[in-house]
Amino acid sequence: MKYDVVGVGLVVVDHLVVLAEHPDQDTKTNIISDAYQVGGPVPTAQVLLKRFGKQCAFLGSWGDDQYGPLIAEDLATENLDLSASRMLPGTRSGYAQVWIDEQAGTRTIACYRPQHWLPPSELDETPFRQTRAVHLDGWPPETSLQAARLARQAGALVSLDTGSLKPGMPELIPYLNVMNCPRRFITEYLQTDDVHAAGRKLLAQGPEIVTITDGTRGAWLFTEAGCLHCAALPVLSLDTTGAGDVFSGALLYAILEEWPLKRVLQFACVTAALKCERLGNRDALPSLAEIEAVLQTRAPALKAINN
User: Is the torsion defined by CA of 67, 73, 78, 81 positive or negative?
Assistant: First the structure.
């Protein structure tokens, strides 16, 4: 195979703004520091995978505004194959303002999603026949669905990082092998806060593996054989931006390595937790050596739960 992972999804420029604490409405506060970075669930996961030694191609688009060159240069520098991506003339790139509360280690995001996307009819089908896996974030819905169909036709594994609820989820989920979602997604999509009931319902819709993440409460992994829960690794959290993106990338890496599911879940949890100890999503990405050291010395607790 030419690629380990082909990614299709949203790419944005994040403007990270660090504040001492979130201000009240209609007040002012000082900025401690700020920085620009390229983000998006799929590109961030793919950068992690590439740094872990996987071959990755990103299929996406950006505008010809001031952020377009930054996106193209950043992803090229990370050695993602961009041959099937392109700049769309006369359009705006994705953009997000990320307010990081330094005291709490939390973030609030206001984002602009592009109004123009790489349409399904313009997806290059060749990469889907040359990859082991396809990773999606559900944006744009029609393009994600077409990508999932092409991947399944080619026999590739299909992975989705849901993030928040998006249009087209009922149509997309049956094509999935792996589905990762934050706890808020199950509330939005299934109108339940029962993690175990949600895991079973999502499995019934098609995926073979479902993970549900919940910050300091850890994460759950569901298969037809049962459920695993991994406690959260205690860390001094500086910035949670991209933690779910990193969890999804690490999850996919561990699955492609064909590790036992207990190690798969622990690896993803530790990788996401270590990312939160640093600001941003590039310098913050941990190395394989850092993750392995934690797994050997202070691995978070695992518990098997019968479905």
Answer: positive
Q: Residue 141 is encoded by which pair of tokens?
A: 């819905």
Q: Which residues contact 228 (CB under 8 A, 6 or more apart)?
A: 220, 221, 261, 262, 265, 302, 303, 304, 305
Average pLDDT over residues 39-54: 97
Instruction: Indicate the DSSP class of residue 168.
Output: T
At how many degrees (to 10) do helices 243-256 and 261-275 cross? 150
User: For residue 45, what are its two tokens?
Assistant: 């996961």
* Paired sense of beta strands 3-8 and 56-59, if any: parallel
Question: Mean pLDDT across the chain, nearest whole number?
Answer: 95
**CA separation for the pair 274, 290 (Å, rounded):** 9
Q: CATH code for 3-10+40-91+118-305?
A: 3.40.1190.20
Q: How far is CA 59 from CA 8, 56, 78, 84, 183, in A?
A: 5, 10, 15, 5, 28
Q: Decide if pLDDT at 279 tops 90.
A: no
Residue 189's pLDDT band (cuts 50, 70, 90): very high
| DSSP-derived secondary structure letter, 90 | T
Q: What does the pLDDT read at residue 1?
A: 86
Instruction: Using DSSP, state whether 142 is helix, strand or coil.
Output: helix
